User: Fold these one by one.
Assistant:
Number 1:
Amino acid sequence: MKESTKMLIHYVTGFLILVTGAIHLISNNLVSLKWIKETVWYPMSLGIFLAAVLYHSMNGLRVILVELFPGSSSGKIISTTLFIIGVVFFISGLYFLLVLFKWW
Amino acid sequence: MSELRKVQFKVFRFNPSIDTSPKWKIYEVEVDRGSTVLDALLKIKEEQDPSLAVRYSCRQAICGSCGMMINGKQRLACFTRVLELNTRVVVVEPLNNYPIVRDLITDFSDLFNKEKMVKPYIIRDDTLEMLNPTGMYLQKPEELLEYLQFADCIECGLCSSACPTYSTDSLFLTPMILNKAFRFSADSRDMGLHHRLPIIDSEHGCWRCHFAVACSSVCPKGIDPAKSIQLLKRMIASASIFKLVKKKETQLVSRHHAVESVV
Ligand code: SF4
Ligand code: SF4
Ligand code: FES
């Protein structure tokens, strides 16, 4: 994947974290908007939040690490390792979400 | 005749062929209102210590040779008046981020190798015209303004020396080189962006710039390389992700016609 594509996704996920994070905070703290939690959109927004947070944080970590350890092979090792960690976290997070909302 | 004042210079000294570690030497120099740090260093060299190594050429902020750390900041020695620094001791060191050759001289080979990689020249696909030129490419004033500010770079390397990313990531292309890549890619006569993309849109290319703007704050020519890097990111995103490449159409006029229109 081109670096520009990775960074575009980074910025888009940053925006998604803001939106889905706001949905989470609002629906849990404003009594008048508690109904959001009863809809199907709420667990879906949490799923998007999980994916966005994981991509954004793993890519942020990748950027820091490739700067600290420059080199073409170290770049590949860093990216692959973080990708695997991200996928493992996403699958386990998704599993917890599905169990929590009784979809599993 | 302006009044002379004595100023102390604390100068970094290191000759890798004989020294095991760097040392500082203090010199006292008489300067006047117009004396630059380079004038003072050359006076030290002439009158007190001929072994001091300094690189310079034009003495008027054009060649980009005399960059050094002066009182902790990247500056051109020939473009910095001693008394304007307003300190009793002037501390002079080699530029940060580059290997030291000797005393105040640093090695720019890494920068010049990276510069070659971004193809810092106009690239065109009308090969026949390039080989057998019949005329000149017209450029409108607004097209010139797209890159004019960024074309004034004298390759002094001060910006790359100030860049915090380059201090940790030795493969980062650095502001001097990314500015050069933008200057040519933004030129209405150039068609070479796709040749530069594999380098500038890479892991150590323009996306590693965190917009700390340290580069622009030290540029002696007011280039603002931090701005050209952000413009380069926009250009890459349009070309590489959204495939929005503005078609460049340059008008070729015969030499005869061009001379006539000037007359
Ligand atoms: S703006 Fe970018 S290139 Fe300039 S000093 Fe900061 S990180 Fe380096
Ligand atoms: S952009 Fe400015 S500081 Fe950087 S090399 Fe060019 S003239 Fe020097
Ligand atoms: S001597 Fe040429 S820029 Fe200073």
Note: The mean pLDDT of chain B is 94.
Number 2:
Amino acid sequence: MPTYTFAVNGKTVTVDAPADMPLLWVLRDKLGVTGPKYGCGIDVCKACTSHLDGEAVNPCVVPVSEAAGRKVTTIEGLADGDTLHPVQEAWLEEDVAQCGYCQPGQIMAAVALLRKNKNPTDAEIDAIQNVCRCGTYFRIREAIKRAAAKM
Amino acid sequence: MGSPTKSAAEHDDGAVGRRRFLTFLVAAPTLTLATTNLAPDGIGTAAAEAGVPGLPQPADIMDLGDVLILAGTPTAHLLVLEVTEDGEAHFELPRAEVGQGITTAVAMLVAEELDLPLSKVRVRLADARPELLMNQLTGGSNTIRSVYGPVRRTAAAARARLVAAASTRWDLSPDRLVTRDGAVVAPDGRTASYGSLTGLAATLPLPGLTVKPKPESEHTLVGTPTSRIDARAMVTGTMRYTLDLDVAGAKPTMVRRPPTINGTVRSVNNETAVRAMPGVIDLAVVPTGVAVMAETFGQALDAKDALDVSWNDGTVDALSDADIRKRLRAAALPFVVPPLLTRHVDAEFDFAFVSHAPLETNSAIADVRDDRAEIWAGLKSAIVAKQTIAAAIGLPEDRVTVHVRQSGGSFGRRLFFDGALEAAQISKAMARPVKLMWSRIDDMRHGRARPATHHKIRATYALGQVLTYEHRVAAVETDFRHGLGEILTATAARLPVAGNLSFAQTVFLTTVKVPYDFGVVTELLNEVPLKMHTASWRSVYSANTRGAEEILVDELAKRMGKDPVAFRRAFLKTDRQRRVLDKVAAAGNWGRTMPAGFAQGVGFHDEYKSCTACLVEIDARDPGKPRVVRAVIAADVGRPINPRGLEAQLLGGLTDAISTTLRAGLHIDRGLPLEGSYSQFHYARQKDSPTDVRIFIMPADGEPGGAGELGVPAAVGAIANAYARATGTSPRSFPINFDVDFTPFPR
Ligand code: FES
Ligand code: FES
């Protein structure tokens, strides 16, 4: 089996895995990084949203070979030690999470959006596709605006 | 000395540990819980100006929540609260947390009663505890209603014992001592932390200790908006859902399922080839399909897809939506009142099947050995799960430990434990621990769904009065085999219904009621039994039944020449109900002029001693792509514990209503739902959600009512009514926009 070396949340890892194994399962089942969630496996629900070199990706459809030599950031790698990222803080202040299952993906999507666009409009926030089955969308929107104001 | 650390608590077995200190098993003092809840809420206070008062309906006298409380009363005080040496309170909650924020609300009750900072309260979900009999069911919007008294009394008992311990230590009378911030304080300023008192408090003989919770007027935390105690774990990705647990040896497992609901395996045609695939560990045929275990879920998924299986028929192979609709129409019971000379409004409505679709798919971990078993899953009826699993794997109940895990949504779904049962069967067949995950496609197609329903409503009116109101509901059978039958049987003598009703009809009559004075009211349910996987879906019958009624109310108002808000105002039964309606009408600027293609709509709902009104504004310039752009909600739940959490529940109810009214449903085609993911089952996304939502919680006045399901029906009515006004149509079939706009996944 080929091996792949890449960084996960600032730590270099090397894994044995078939080239086409989705990164999601490498993270969850081989590396024990369980923040990214499975919700569909086909790039629809976005519960697994993480970053590859700072860009939002959906590891359920990213083969591990594509991660080789690159930087993977999951929800676990967003905070700086005990200091939360402003988006995480905004999420706490708006008390966004209900069941919480979609929220790692929602937060990673919001961080990626705010990186590109410091002050997103409602229409730009609308473009976030992540499903929240608990229906927290309005609080997500408020939290993104709050985070934008902070950053 | 060992007070349990957090990680130890994760793994303990729910029994009272040997080395714990102040641990109470407060025996049932047979308090008067059941009777205090029997008074019909609000009936007879403030007669409506215009309506013809009808008799109270069964749900006015005793609703399903009252039934659950009554069934749970004998064991309501078998609660476990521990005060640890480091001054924390650990409470074991015999309910499920699925996102409704119940652990936060309960932690608030404990903190309030103990005078302890909220950060020092831990709430852990109890393992299945069969000794609780019927008191470990999470449903019917009932948790706060059923635990509000018992949790406070248990915590008050703990506080009284801690005070008694300090009084012994200082030789001061207990009534000279106060509690503050996790400590007992003497008049001279000396303090003793709870942690330092817990050992003594546990051993003191205290016969005749009297315990009374604080008067509600002294509450400082309960009733104030409070953030979730588990929010930080959620935003940092450290919250552990079932599949995030590391149970020794439990390997990723998935099941290949039949092409139609309830089909069974005839033969596996390529077992050797699949066993040879990379990472595959084991394969077993189980009653629900073919299970494959692998090193990773990616490999288990590939192997399951590679399986070549011949299947036996399922239970509804010939059925499609058109047949189901025909059978429902035929099943709706006839009206009693002929239209004859009276003026009347008739309407019929259809609602499609709706998947629960919690974002965390059905999942469970099971470790079944020859002489014992251990299960981890999100379970809302943990005791029935434990009993059923024990029977299925041939072990005595006391050899099966069932851990209830916090889970990623439910909406009724996790009343059923099919995932946990299946994991146990696979673990037994493979003789290995199993980490089972359902694929999203399977979760949508072979999971549970809200049954399709058909509704016929007739209202007659004359001289500004509604004289009669009849609603006939025909529904595909809802599966209640998660312990509800036992509960209804146990409480049968007290139920406010007569005759030979089915369980479903009893549930219907104890949950659905018309909040208006509409003269002679009859609402009847008739079920069509089909062997499909159904379950209660947030608000059970009310989303459809009351939603359709709120649409009819608008049409009736129009016919009688009244404005929808003024009409409801006139016919609502109580001032309490009118206040929430007035609140949304004022805050939402009811009646303001809207551009063409936009409209306002309003809905009202009353259940489980709570009531709510919802006003929405819709943009339906493109009737095929409507969007609710604004919403105002008001709710009176009697006594809100955590208004912030309550607002979250109402927001969730609103999003459910937007989804199911406008676009989200399941098409049944030859024995299987066509939808297999969120790209096909159109649950709302951010772009479908309003950019302006305001929620008002009415001030506390009385006992807590139910709130978890409250938000859906009023919002269904409001959205449908807004759509009708914006488009000039009369929506009759839901979801309104329900084309098959996708290519279904292969079966
Ligand atoms: S699991 Fe990756 S998008 Fe759904
Ligand atoms: S919080 Fe439950 S799915 Fe978003």
Note: The longest strand of chain B covers residues 465-476.
